[in-house]
Amino acid sequence: MKAQFEYQNKKEEVLIEQTTNLITVTQGKRHTTFQYHRISSGYCFLSKGRIFETSISSITGNQLSIVVNGKTATICFEDPKKFVPKNSSKATQADREVYAFMPGRISKIYVKSGDRISPGVSLLALEAMKMENEIKSQSHGIVAKIHVSVGSSVEGGSILITLNPVEEEGSG
C-alpha cells in the first residue's frame, strides 16, 4: 500500500507491505523489514537490533499521527482500509521465531516444546524496567524449541522461541 511518511520535516513516498507479524517499508530501492509486537502503550518494532516503541496519537481521515521513541511522525495512507493484517500462505523465518523486543529477564514460560498454539496465546513473560510484559504468539504453530529458561537475561532481538508453522484450524 502506498503512503506518504513525514518525519522531522521530511516527506517520503513509501510502500508498506504487511504479513502476520512483519512490516516491510520500501523507500526507493531501500527495503526495511520490522518485526512488531503489541505492547500496552502501542507497538514495539524491531529491526536490525534496534527497537522502536510507537503509539498512535491521533487518526484523522487517512492521516495517522504516531509517536516513535518520543518523536512525532505522520503517515498519510492512500487507502487506509487496505492496511490490515494479512494471512500469508508461506511462513517466513520471522513467523517461526519469537524475539525479545527489549532487553530483560525471563520471568515465566507458559508453553513447552510440542505445544500447539494460535495467535494471542501467551508464550512467556519478559520483565523489563520493573514491568512484566507478556509475549504472545502472532501466528499458528507448534513450539519447536524454547531458547531461554526462567531467570535468563536476554538482549533485545534475542530469539526466545522457535515455532513450526501449521495450517489454521478449519483451513485447507
- Could you say which structural class the secondary elements and strand pairing correspond to? mainly beta
**Nearest-integer average pLDDT:** 77
Biggest sheet, in brief? Answer: 8 strands, antiparallel, barrel
Q: Output the helix-strand order.
A: EEEEEEEEHEEEEEEEE
N→C terminal distance: 27 Å
Q: How many distinct domains?
A: 2
Topology diagram in text:
Elements: E1 2-7, E2 10-18, E3 22-27, E4 30-39, E5 42-47, E6 50-60, E7 63-68, E8 71-77, H1 93-96, E9 97-99, E10 104-109, E11 116-117, E12 122-128, E13 131-136, E14 141-146, E15 153-154, E16 159-164
Structure commentary:
The protein is mainly β and 172 residues long. The chain has two domains: 2-82, Lipocalin (Beta Barrel), CATH 2.40.128; 93-164, OB fold (Dihydrolipoamide Acetyltransferase, E2P), CATH 2.40.50.100. Helix content is 2%, strand content 58%. It is built from one helix and 16 strands. The protein has one helix spanning 93-96; strands at 2-7, 10-18, 22-27, 30-39, 42-47, 50-60, 63-68, 71-77, 97-99, 104-109, 116-117, 122-128, 131-136, 141-146, 153-154, 159-164. It has an eight-stranded antiparallel beta barrel. A four-stranded antiparallel sheet has the order 9-16-14-11. A hairpin with a 2-residue loop joins strand 4 (30-39) and strand 5. The model is unreliable at 80-94 (pLDDT under 50).
